[in-house]
Design brief:
- The structure is a single chain.
- The chain is mainly alpha-helical.
- Among the domains are: 39 residues, no CATH class; 101 residues.
- The protein is built from eleven helices and no strands.
- 14% of the residues are buried.
- InterPro entries: Znf_CCHC, Znf_CCHC_NABP, Znf_CCHC_sf.
- Pfam families: zf-CCHC.
């Protein structure tokens, strides 16, 4: 914000001069920030409405990496920092929940995280939900992003051009992961694996009854396991 503000000719100098007083002839840094915020990041209903409109347009699509979703949300919140800094953790979680309504597994995952936090009497944060969603995606899709990031016509036209890169599913060249003939097979292999979070240790990938942390399951622990 400061870089953008300093590029503004005339107005910025006027704001800087307003920060100079008899006690602070060279200006007071905190006053500079205050004046710049008032000019370039006004706290008003227009800013809040604009922020809400942008947040409502953010949606996670099935197969898309969740870290991209959180990056988009943070970008908007930082853009409207003057109003977003007052949001509670609960309000931020509501933004995330709204963005994943069309992807049932993530909606269910967030509900599960809420229940887990309540059981452990902990405050659920956006960072905790992001970590759980990223872990879930890696277990389900690996590090691949199976959903194209662009919805516009230009993106569709690019998709018609021969792809010369390497597929993340089979490793072969000439097609993308979402077009891979082995994609269905790889998903079938993963079917049946529990992708939720353990209520005992809090880690993803196994159920509470199978948790190695429990003494009843010590015979299931692999060699070299450290609790």
């Amino acid at each position: 914000m400061l870089t953008l503000a300093l590029a503004d000719d005339g107005t910025t100098l006027d704001l800087l001069y307003k920060c100079m007083t008899n006690d602070w002839p060279k200006g007071l840094a905190s006053k500079v920030i205050e004046n710049l915020n008032a000019k370039f990041a006004p706290k008003d209903m227009a800013s809040k409405t604009a922020m809400e409109k942008k947040l409502q347009g953010i949606r996670l699509r099935k197969g898309q990496r969740p870290d991209k979703l959180f990056k988009k949300i943070r970008t908007v919140l930082n853009e409207y920092r003057s109003v977003s800094k007052g949001l509670s953790e609960e309000e931020k979680l509501a933004i995330v929940s709204r963005a994943v309504t069309k992807v049932k597994e993530y909606a269910a995952l967030i509900s599960q995280e809420i229940r887990l936090a309540e059981m452990n009497k902990k405050t659920l944060t956006v960072e905790m939900v992001e970590e759980a969603m990223v872990d879930f995606h890696r277990l389900t899709y690996g590090d691949d992003d199976e959903e194209e990031d662009s919805d516009d016509d230009e993106g569709n036209e690019v998709g018609l051009v021969a792809f010369c890169g390497k597929c993340y599913v089979c490793g072969k060249e000439g097609h993308k992961a979402d077009q891979c003939p082995n994609k269905t097979k790889s998903k079938k292999k993963k079917k049946g694996k529990f992708l939720g979070r353990c209520y005992n240790c809090g880690k993803c990938g196994h159920r509470s009854e199978d948790c190695w942390e429990k003494s009843d399951n010590k015979d299931k622990r692999p060699n070299g396991w450290k609790g």
